[in-house]
Design a protein that fits this description.
The protein is mainly α. It has one domain. It has seven helices and no strands.
């Protein structure tokens, strides 16, 4: 059954991912490069941390996320839509993210490692939340709705309930839900006009 939920988590992620690449291609979205690099790094490390604890199908959802993040960085640079001008806050959150990654790798306790992984990932993600809040049209609805759905199913793909296993998938679900809600709010506001 866990494998089924893993598949149910991966499929919507890629259903949203390929249209996101199309949106990059057509210049409808402007990914914040600091966020996507940081996410790729933290999700890749989370994958290894999750496997270090015990084999877990949910870890492969996280690995798929890491691969997608690095693909977005490369393709958005190639298409010239990557946000590469960074504010002081962007830089500060990026530094916090790297500090979180260093603490995560330094700690020998998987629970603390996951906490710092989440803090690092969130620090990398705050620039995208701020960018999307200021300019909701810089993101599109389908990719974030599918990422949210993927995060939801990944929670049910965990092998057993422990903080180490469930924390990162739950965090990803809520992060994606926030971006999704910002974009939904913009779409609804746009329809009223």
């Amino acid at each position: 059954m866990k494998l089924v939920f893993t598949i149910l988590a991966i499929v919507p992620y890629f259903i949203g991912f390929f249209p996101y690449l199309k949106d990059i291609h057509t210049r409808r979205v402007q990914p914040h490069v600091m966020s996507w690099i940081g996410w790729g790094l933290t999700t890749l490390l989370a994958f290894f941390a999750m496997l270090a604890d015990v084999f877990n199908w949910a870890a492969f959802v996280v690995l798929a996320n890491a691969i997608a993040c690095f693909t977005v960085v490369i393709y958005s640079y190639v298409r010239g839509v990557a946000i590469t001008v960074f504010s002081r806050y962007d830089t500060l959150f990026f530094i916090f993210g790297f500090i979180g990654v260093l603490l995560w790798q330094y700690l020998d306790n998987p629970d603390f490692a996951i906490v710092f992984a989440i803090l690092a990932d969130l620090s990398f993600g705050i620039p995208t939340i701020m960018k999307t809040y200021k300019k909701p049209s810089s993101e599109t609805l389908l990719p974030w709705s599918m990422a949210t759905l993927s995060g939801f199913f990944s929670i049910f793909a965990i092998s057993y309930v422990s903080f180490t296993e469930i924390a990162f998938p739950v965090y990803l679900f809520f992060y994606d839900l926030i971006i999704f809600m910002i974009v939904v709010g913009w779409v609804q506001q746009k329809k009223k006009v």
